[in-house]
Amino acid sequence: MYKRQANKGFSQRRTLAYLYGWTLVLAASALALRFVPYSDNHGHFNLPWTLLMVSVIIAAIAVSAYLVYVLEIIKLRRTDSGP
């Protein structure tokens, strides 16, 4: 992944910051899924903890999507319809 970012003009520091940030968000979401008491054993959700869980998961998805977009991991084809 570093080569891909270097080819896009990213510095080594910026690349490491992106990768460490991505790792931090994914690790936080994994730890939150394991240790945050967002529901009890009876299936009742605790609203503040559930909102925290949703925000952590949305952040993980957003960071992952951003990196896929920036690094062009998935290239979308443009379909130009000619005259």
The rounded Rg comes to 18 Å
Number of strands: 0
**Beta-strand content:** under 5%
Order of helices and strands: HHH
Q: Helicity range of the residues?
A: 55-70%
**Mean pLDDT score, rounded?**
78
Query: Shape from CA axes?
Result: elongated
Write down the domain tally: 1
Alpha plus pi helix count:
3
Structural class label: mainly alpha
The largest β sheet comes out as: none
Low-pLDDT regions: none
Distance between the termini: 39 Å
Describe the structure.
By secondary structure, this protein is an all-alpha fold. It has one domain. Helix content is 65%, strand content 0%. It has 3 helices and no strands. The protein has helices spanning 2-7, 12-35, 47-70. α2 (12-35) runs antiparallel to α3 (47-70). The mean pLDDT is 78.
Features of the shown structure:
single chain; about 80 residues; mainly alpha; about 0% strand; elongated
SSE map:
Blueprint: H1 2-7, H2 12-35, H3 47-70
Helix pairs in contact: 2-3
Task: Write a brief structural summary.
This protein is mainly α and 83 residues long.
